[in-house]
Write a structure and sequence with these properties.
Gyrase A, domain 2; alpha+beta; 49% helix; 5 helices
Length: 199
């Protein structure tokens, strides 16, 4: 004999399973989207928090800086305004300055060994009061008197003084033969002018 199932068919459960599948898939995908959005939110909030910490650090560093110095005072601004006038006055003074160390060094280099000086006088070629050259007819700004053994020594000294760049108008004022301590010597006097700077 053949077995027969007399129980009624359960068609409602099969339909329930078929209808719950799309709901399940939709719920899972929704959950996945929510999880993805949550992860993105967490990453974004972490970046924002890091940037906020950096901004806070920079604000603390800014507040730790010393206050800015006060601007220049009125007197300091006035001094800055006078700078060009001071620079031009300095350049004018330096252009008429006589470099005495150079003049005397050049003179000592050309002085012959057989000549010795008894006096040497020098004065500036520029008057400090008028700032104008103090040249006259005869040279008088650089005067030397001394002794040597012959007139040739005097001529040698004059020829050497004429090649000194800072001396001009070199002239022999006197040259006389005399006896000093039993020796014949030539006493001389030479004058020259100092070249004005920039001339």
């Amino acid at each position: 004999m053949r077995a027969v199932n007399l129980l009624p068919r359960d068609s409602g459960q099969r339909q329930l399973k078929k209808e719950s599948l799309p709901v399940l898939v939709g719920g899972c995908s929704g959950l996945l989207v929510v999880a993805l959005l949550g992860a993105m939110f967490m990453m974004g909030s972490g970046k924002i928090a890091a940037q906020q910490r950096k901004v806070d650090d920079l604000n603390r560093q800014y507040q730790a800086l010393p206050p800015a110095p006060a601007g220049p005072s009125a007197a300091q601004q006035q001094l800055a305004g006078e700078q060009s006038a001071r620079v031009s006055a300095l350049s004018t003074a330096l252009s008429t300055r006589t470099s005495w160390d150079r003049v005397f060094r050049e003179f000592s280099l050309v002085l012959p060994d057989d000549v010795w000086l008894t006096t040497l006088s020098a004065k500036s070629p520029i008057s400090p009061l008028t700032n104008a050259p103090t040249s006259g007819a005869a040279p008088s700004q650089f005067m030397v008197t001394g002794r040597t053994y012959s007139h040739d020594g005097v001529a040698r000294l004059i020829s050497r003084l004429q090649v000194v760049p800072d001396l001009i108008n070199v002239q022999l004022l006197s040259s006389t033969l005399s006896t000093v301590a039993g020796h014949d010597v030539v006493e001389f006097s030479i004058a020259a002018d100092i070249k004005v700077a920039g001339a």
